[in-house]
Structures are given as C-alpha cells and as structure tokens.
Write a structure and sequence with these properties.
Shape of chain B: elongated
Helix content of chain B: 25-40%
Strand order of the largest sheet of chain A: 1-2-5
CATH class of the largest domain in chain B: Alpha Beta
Largest sheet of chain A: 3 strands, antiparallel
Number of helices of chain A: 4
Distance between the termini of chain B: 36 Å
CATH superfamily of the largest domain in chain B: Succinyl-CoA synthetase domains
Distance between the termini of chain A: 50 Å
Helix content of chain A: 25-40%
Radius of gyration of chain B: 26 Å
CATH topology of the largest domain in chain B: Rossmann fold
Number of domains of chain A: 1
Shape of chain A: globular
Number of helices of chain B: 13
Largest sheet of chain B: 7 strands, antiparallel
Number of domains of chain B: 3
Oligomer: heterodimer
Structural class of chain A: alpha+beta
Number of strands of chain A: 5
Radius of gyration of chain A: 17 Å
Strand content of chain A: 15-25%
Strand content of chain B: 15-25%
Number of strands of chain B: 18
CATH architecture of the largest domain in chain B: 3-Layer(aba) Sandwich
Order of helices and strands of chain A: EEHEEHHEH
Chain lengths: ~110, ~425
C-alpha cells in the first residue's frame, strides 16, 4: 500500500511533511516549481501525480534540501495547503518560560 | 570566541597535568557549605563569571570557617559582580603562596605565530605590568609547525633570577603543557594568572581559556554551552539558542548578540528598544549608525549573511521578536549576493507563525529592506503573502539606503505611537 504521507528530515534538524492525499487534485504543483528552481529534492511521481523524492533520505538530510521553505509557502498560496515544515529551536520553550514580560506578538495592538 | 569559566578552564588544565587547588563547583549556599566541609578551611569562594576584574569587584572572597563561607557565598550570589549575575561558585582550598607568576599562550597577529609569555610578577593585571614595567614580560614566538620544547621554555623562564632551577624546570614544563592545550583545543588564549609557588609546589590559582569560536565544532568533547562573543558577560539563554542555529548547518551564518538583554540601557537613556537584523555586519553597523541618532536602541546585533538557508532566517527572526519590550523591527540587507528570496521566506514563515491572527502582519513598526540578488522576488513574496499590506509594515527595495530605511522606520514608529499609544 502506498503511503499518503511524504516526510523527510532536513540538515538543520527540521522536517518537511507533505500530505499527498491533497496533492493529486492540485493543478499548480507549486511546491515542485519552487523546489526545482532551488535545485531541491522534490520531483513529480508521474504515475500518481504527486511529489516524490529525487534523492535518498540520507542525501536530503546531508543538505539536498536547501531549506528555502518555498514548498510550504507556495503550497499555502497556490496549492492545497499540503506541506508542513517544522523547525525546532532547542531550548526555546525553556526561554519562553523564563520571561516575566510578554513578548510583543502576544500583546494586543 | 568562547571564554570558558574558571572551573572549566581548570578542568582542562588538570587534564593536561597542571596542578590546581582542590575545589568544587556549587550553585547554592548549602552546596557551598558541603564543599567547604570536604575541602577544609581556610578556603576561597570565587564567582564564576567572565570578567577580568572579578577580584576587585568582590567576586573572590577568602573565608576561614563555615559561617564566613556561607555569608560570602550568599553575598556573592545575591549581588551582581562587575555588573554580572552570579549563579555558580567555585569553592577552593586556600594555599600558602610564596610567589606569584604569570604565564600565557596566545596568538601574535603581528608575528603571525603563537607566542608564549612569562612574567615573574603574577597575580596582577598583565596589561598594567606591560605598561609599567615592559622589561618584566618575556616572550617567545613559536613556529606552529615545530611546536615548543621544554629547553626553549626554560630559556624564557631563566630570565627570572629569584627562582631555583627545579622551579624553573617546573614552570617550563607547565608552559609546554599550556601550549599543548592551546593547540589541542583551538584556543585563542591560555592563561594562568597567577601560577603560585607554594610549599606543595607549583599550582595554577586562576586560569583563563578562550576557544576560537569558529573551531567550536571541533571541540564537541568539551560539551560547552557557548554563544556569540558577548564581551565579558556570560551568554544569555537567547544567545545560546541562537548559537545552535548554525550548529548542524554550515550554509550561511547567524551571528546574534543581545546588546541590551534586559533593556536597561534603553530605559536608562530614554531610547526606544527595537529588534534588529541585517545581512552583513557592515550593514548592521551603518544601519545602527542611522537608527541611534533617531532615538532608537537596537537591543540586539544580528548578522544573517553568507547566503543562509530560509530556515535560519525563520529561527532567528522568531528569536528577535521574542525579546520582550521591543517597539519595532528593522531588517536591512547590504547590497548582497545572497539569495534574498530565501531570506524573505524565512522571515515570512516566522511572522506568519508569530502573528497567525493577522496572517503575519506584525503589531509593531517593521521595516524590511531588501537590496541585492533576488531582491525583487523578496519584495514580491512579502506582497503575495499579504505582509506588505500590514498597517505597520514598510517593505523597501534596492533603491533605499540605510538612512532611507531608518527614516522610514522613524516615521512609521511616530505614526504607530500616536495611533496605538505604544505597546505593553
């Protein structure tokens, strides 16, 4: 059975996850357009009409993905919001817990 | 540069066979009392901060019993020493000192080689000695391919006429071991000041080890929490987080330093604190030069250059906006060859995550100035994602100068303040 989730880790420790169930009906394939401009890892799986990977997971983790974030942002605007990029920041939650004042983005304008 | 704390430096010294006093690292008064009981009295209580003036600032205390130790530990940990908070102490045995000596290994940029330094008068500021009595300081430049041999170090130490041959030989051996530390750990400085002549022999009473920041990846076994060069203070947690951004990824760099971490400078001098990021350290300085006369105080320095991947911009933008109290954000690229569309993508993703309700439009004045390769794409992306339309956002392109960006930010801030009454 073919998975409907395409996921891979990036060099910086982040992860890209693509919900392929949304991609077949996507006409723009915006993620592929931007990824190919950047020389990134996404190519079209012509049989299924969804993104697939040009290289192995290991090669992508070594730096094959240029982490431009374009796949997520362009999919959000021109595709079917199928791409999610998570980029963890070590100790960031701990830092937020130490704050005694709220950050500006948590304040009302 | 990563300046180690004294106890970290002494750990390395011991590993290379250089004697140090018995001591324990503590983080509470109760732990200090336990350490005192084990080490015995008299003892020393030493604040673990990155400051050369620690002794004069009251961060080094001599104590004779448990009551004095508890009082000193509480005192040092409650007070700021040299303006720095103290959360770690080193409790050490106090030794009988007959003579103090200065030893150092560093790089001499003029000679383009390492240099070992010996001075028979230790325990004082070596820079002061260099001015007052330059002949007391003896130097030996080292051929980095050949290294240093004990007989060469001994020749240097022979300049002191009040030491025995055995003592001179011991000092020469320590100098060679310091050079080993310098090379093994990619140091910029290895310093023992003072090396004490005690009845038990030669002992390093205080030590400083600075590691080249660019070599930290090679020094993973030291397991250091380090960050960008932040002067004599310890790195802030935010700086430590920022330092992890480049850790696994060499593509472009993020240099982040909190100039005014608690906004005390901005408040004291009635300046407006703002978050700040530039492509290129030079652009950082020239943009700051334009912002400061207009009454702003960038609370952080940040240089995101060398063509960083978008994820780096995302992470650091999130950090910059997470400094409470900032009343604006300025981003300016130099005339850069880096892919500014990727830079913009990182900023866009961060803003969208921080401001989900406004789809990425910040609630503080924000000027984004893109100049260089793919700058038009960067500007277009911000428009496509609706961020440029934000009430408090101004996006500028390659025709803008640093002054234009600063003045645009000033106007925006004036409007913002009169319309919203500021924030927080």
């Amino acid at each position: 059975m073919t998975s409907n989730i395409l996921t891979f880790e990036m060099r910086s420790g982040g992860r890209i996850t693509i919900d392929l169930s949304r991609c077949a009906a996507c006409e723009s394939k915006a993620c592929l357009v931007v990824c190919n401009v950047q020389g990134g890892p996404l190519v079209l799986d012509e049989a299924r009409g969804v993104p697939s990977l040009r290289w192995s997971l290991e090669e992508i983790k070594r730096g094959g993905c240029v982490e431009c974030l374009g796949c997520e942002l362009d999919c959000e605007l021109f595709g079917h919001q199928a791409v999610t990029i998570t980029l963890p920041l070590e100790k960031f939650d701990k830092y937020m817990d130490t704050l005694t004042e709220p950050t500006v983005y948590r304040l009302e304008s | 540069m990563a300046r180690l704390l004294e106890y970290q430096a002494k750990t390395i010294l011991r590993r290379f066979g250089i004697p140090t006093p018995d001591g324990q690292v503590v983080r509470a008064v109760s732990e200090a009392k336990n350490a005192g009981a084990q080490i015995g009295y008299p003892a020393m209580v030493k604040a673990q901060i990155r400051s050369g003036k620690r002794g004069k600032g009251g961060g080094v205390r001599s104590v004779n019993d448990e009551a004095e130790l508890a009082a000193a530990a509480a005192d040092v940990m409650e007070d700021n020493i040299c303006g720095l908070p103290v959360d770690t102490l080193l409790v050490e045995q106090r030794l009988e000192v007959m003579k103090e000596i200065y030893l150092g290994v560093t790089a001499d940029p003029n000679a383009r080689s390492p240099v070992i330094i010996f001075c028979g008068n230790g325990g004082v500021d070596i820079e002061e000695t260099a001015l007052a009595d330059p002949e007391a300081i003896h130097k030996l430049h080292i051929d980095i391919l050949r290294g240093v041999y004990p007989y060469e170090a001994l020749k240097l130490v022979n300049a002191a006429d009040d030491l025995t041959s055995r003592q001179k030989l011991g000092i020469a051996r320590i100098l060679c071991r310091m050079y080993d530390i310098y090379r093994t750990h990619d140091c910029k400085l290895v310093e023992i000041n003072p090396l004490a002549l005690t009845p038990e022999g030669l002992v390093a009473l205080d030590a400083r080890v600075d590691i080249d920041g660019d070599a930290l990846e090679r020094q993973a076994d030291l397991n250091l929490d380090v960050a960008e060069e932040a002067g004599s203070r310890s790195p802030t947690l935010l700086e430590e987080i920022a330092a992890t951004i480049d850790e696994e990824d060499h593509r472009g760099t993020v240099h982040f330093v909190q100039i005014d971490p608690d906004l005390s400078y901005a408040r004291e001098h009635n300046r407006i604190p703002i978050g700040f990021d530039c492509v290129g350290a030079g652009a950082c300085l020239t943009t700051m030069d334009e912002l400061v006369p207009l009454g702003f105080c960038p609370v952080n320095f940040c240089d995101t250059s060398g063509n960083p991947v978008g994820s780096k911009l995302y992470r650091v933008t999130k950090l910059i906006f997470s400094q409470p109290g900032i009343q604006g954000y300025v981003f300016v690229s130099c005339i850069s060859s880096q892919q500014l569309d990727n830079t913009a993508r990182g900023i866009i993703k961060a803003l969208k995550e921080l401001y989900p309700e406004t789809k990425g439009q910040p609630n503080i004045p924000t000027v984004l100035c893109f100049r260089g390769a793919w700058d038009e794409d960067a500007v277009r992306l911000l428009a496509e994602h609706g961020i440029s339309e934000g009430r408090w956002v101004r996006v500028m392109g390659r025709d803008a100068t640093e002054r234009d960006a600063a003045e645009a930010f000033y106007s925006l801030h004036q409007e913002w303040r009169s319309e919203t009454g500021s924030i927080g």
